[in-house]
Amino acid sequence: MPSAIESLLTSNIRPSIQRMRILDYLRQKKNHPTVETIFNDLAPEIPTLSKTTVYNTLQLLKENGLVISLDLGEGYIRYDADTSPHLHFECEKCGGVFDIFMAPEDLRKKLPAGFVLKETRVYAFGVCAKCAKVNG
Amino acid sequence: MPSAIESLLTSNIRPSIQRMRILDYLRQKKNHPTVETIFNDLAPEIPTLSKTTVYNTLQLLKENGLVISLDLGEGYIRYDADTSPHLHFECEKCGGVFDIFMAPEDLRKKLPAGFVLKETRVYAFGVCAKCAKVNG
């Protein structure tokens, strides 16, 4: 994987310290952190950091395909620098979010040993037939 | 399908006017409304209705498996009285949410004519191996 600075330059994003650290942090931590968590963890080493900067940076990284966002219905958004196709399993007891690298149809039969599946939710995003027609 | 009053009684929920109307409304409308939309549509005919009552009723219906909730990352929750397995397609232009009755793996090849798929997100919910062990 290219370094954070290389990834930013490739996406034509100016590699500020804050952007590099946030992207690095997301790549190192695999815990799908929220804006709050990222801010709390990085603020001690970057005194000028604000939650708004964290949020804006994540939006920028997301628009450029360097991170994805997860909404598990908890009332806040989590972020993940692993943009390869995978799905997310949330434990209803500990709240942990696990990366699961398999096709949705394999979920029930191939889950890691010991995991108990209770529900899956699939959301698709795109353009409906009517809007696709209107917008050419 | 049983009537709203029958469904409530079967679930041991006291069939108040408000509960019956909210469940009926969700079954008639297929537009995946929010608390706000339901409140605005029903308040004229039920003057004692409050947003809190709508919210609490939806939670009660959800806990009893009579409705499901959808979180499409818009910052609010939508509700759906169709609890059969299906997935949801959100149009990025008009914001409409469409019910799609197919397996996730068929999404790309069998979408309704004219629909353009850009992204799918799959979330799984259950218990992780560690918590399953701890909790017996």
Quick structural summary:
By secondary structure, chain A is an alpha+beta fold.
What does this structure look like?
- The structure is a homodimer of 136-residue chains.
- Chain A has 136 residues and is an alpha+beta fold.
- Chain A has a single domain (4-134), classed as Arc Repressor Mutant, subunit A (Orthogonal Bundle).
- Helix content of chain A is 37%, strand content 20%.
- Chain A is built from six helices and five strands; from the N terminus they run ααααββββαβα.
- Chain A has helices spanning 4-10, 17-28, 35-42, 51-63, 107-110, 129-134; strands spanning 68-70, 78-80, 87-91, 97-100, 116-127.
- Chain A has a two-stranded antiparallel ribbon with strand order 1-2.
- In chain A, strand 3 and strand 4 (97-100) form a beta hairpin.
- In chain A, helix 2 packs across helix 4 (51-63) and helix 3 crosses helix 4 (51-63).
- The longest helix of chain A is centred in the middle third of the chain and has 13 residues, at 51-63.
- The termini of chain A are far apart.
- The mean pLDDT of chain A is 89.
- The interface between A and B is large, with 45 and 45 residues.
